[in-house]
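Z., the sequence and structure:
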Amino acid sequence: MGTEGALFEIAFARAAAGDLTANQALLADAHHELLRMLRAGTEEQLISERWVTRLGKRQYWRTAKFSGMTEPFLVRWVVVAPGKIGGLGLGPASSAPPIDP
């Protein structure tokens, strides 16, 4: 993937993460996983963001301090094509699933 594609993907993933925290009430009806996000509260401080590969799929991982959590919270977006989200994972950063070597 070229630099332009990678920059687009990270911009898209950042926007999606921002949309999730800004529109929690609307998104909670879409999937029970989002209820975890509601309990996490609002993002207070970004700790890290990175791209990983898990189960052969590219994922954007955003770890942040949230108002309702005592430990860092991890938001995982599965990006299946530029501009297309194929999945979402949420939970404490300490419970992050393994990534591909």
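Helices lie at 3-22, 24-28, 34-40. The chain has a mean pLDDT of 78.

Let me know what you think.
H.
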